[in-house]
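User: Assemble these into one structure.

Assistant: Restating your components, then the assembled model:
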Amino acid sequence: MISAKRLVKWYGPTAAVSDLTFDIEPGQIVGFLGPNGAGKSTTMRILTGYLPPTSGSASIGGHDVLDDSRAARAQIGYLPEGTPLYGEMRVTEYLDYRGRLLKMPRAERRRRIDEVCGRCGLEPVRRRAISNLSRGNKQRVGLAQALLHEPPVLILDEPTAGLDPKQITAVRGLIAELRGRHTVLLSSHILPEVEKTADRVMIIAGGRLVADGSPDELRRRVAAGGRVLIEAKAGAAALREAVGGLDAVARVEVSAQDDGWTRATITPKDDADIREAIGGALLARGVALREIRLESASLEQFFVQVTDSVPGQASEAVAQGGAA
Amino acid sequence: MSAVWTIAKRELTGMYFSPIAYLVLGIFAFVTSLLFFAQYGPGQPATMRGEFTWLVWLLVFLSPAISMRSISEELKSGTIEMLMTAPISDTQVVLGKWLGAVGFFLTLLIPVLLQVALLELTAEPDYGPIFTGLLGLILVGALYLAIGVFVSTLTDSQLIAFITTALITGFLTIGLYMISAADFTPLAVKDVLYYINVNQQFEAFAKGLIDVRNFVFFLSGSALFLFFGIKLLESRRWR
């Protein structure tokens, strides 16, 4: 549904996007993650036909964004970064204006405006001027506008930026409702947001795709260490002796001792799950155990890990330093 | 075509939310009234020729104030992104912006129509020159606003858009007049300058003449600047 081939975008001497290739299947919700300045917005602007790529091509539903731009744009509901709106217009007035630009017939416009106002929680503020709305409500108007013509593709640039936790949950719920009906590409630099809604996560840094997969897959890639955390009632030496002797265990690190309890991190030799072996060994020696678990790898760690090791980021910093 | 009207309508209604619109309306109404009543009285000819000639000068400064918002404000607030990612053409955007500005300009002329009504009630006005004068005024406004819309695609600063537009409209009137008045200007150049001088082109309308050449001047001038505006906006997709 959304396809990008070898996209490259230079802003003067800086490469905002370099060699980005991906394909998004219909009905997928894809989270587009990356630190600020990683090229998320630039990529989205290329996909929506607002900016041309320096090289490479992109298409929406089979329509090239450059050669068949209007057909491609007609497929997209887009929420640009910062939700730019006309402040002097009332909510429904603005939605009606958008509907007209999208060539929606009058009756359909009315029906859809009622529908998106309901879905985005805009009912209480329908008649208010947009400039008088709260940040959260403006964001909802932006979302309502993107959903208005039931576009097959939704491109949402930071849909939850500037919202409070309750509003974020609401927006997340709204996006989850779109599953199946729309193909959604949403960007964020906040992980948990994407982790919970997206079927697939693409992480970019320095304009490059550094990771791509379902949230679970990515989490597993971090968890590959298979390290186990335990807390047992034994001295450090006793614990080392009890667990360290096991075949599958490579290393035991004691991290804390408190009131007879010892916390330790145990690294296995290969990726095997060694919890059972450890539990068995400790029980056999009659050592009390109050915690044993796999070290939970959050996507957050993964994110930091993959985005830190990108050469593009460093060269960008140099380029900016050179300009300044 | 409907997208053009949609944009023009929003442009026109959006205009009335800006204080500048009321300033422009106020200044125009005040100046036209001064000009009108300076010539209004027993024994005076019931024409508006002098008033129209002066209003063309006033437009040099007033029309840039109308057009400076046009695309500059969209660039500033970022709403241009919403507009350019909608499935409409850049031509529709520019034409809509221009028609909206022209629509606002037409409302400026309401006091002039009231003056015509006053003349009708108290004298026997010669409608020929009044009609052609008004028509000429609208054509001048259309040209100046086309220049203004073109300039506003260049910058996100309304102030810069205003100053640049006023420089161009000023050049097409005062500037060209001064150059052609200079002794050292060759006669051939003077002829050309005479042709592209807005005041000269307007004179025929003020006299009550409708000459195809004057029409061609204003309409082709407007079309030229609108074309530049469209190309500039399009070029944002290629940069």
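The longest helix of chain A spans residues 106-119.
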